[in-house]
Structures are given as C-alpha cells and as structure tokens.
Amino acid sequence: MFKVLRRVFAIAALALVAIKGVFSFLSWVEKQEDPQESLWNDDEEYEDA
Fold this sequence. Notes:
Layout: H1 2-48
C-alpha cells in the first residue's frame, strides 16, 4: 500500500516538474523572439532609406 502511494506521489511530482519546465522553456522562447523582431524591423527601416 505504501509502495503504491510513494509511486503515485513520485509520478505526480515528476509531472509537475515537467510541466514547470515546459512553461519555463516557452517563456524563454517568448523572451528570445522579442529582440529579434525589433532587430528585423530596424534592418527594414535602414533598407527603405
């Protein structure tokens, strides 16, 4: 009985850590996209001039 509870708790903890990691990665990707967009916009402005 205790072995089953420990395994269920371990699986739940692992799932929570995995979900937190996914959200951290997605927020990092979102932060990485913002500066690149502004750089592309600056390049396009210089090409028009």
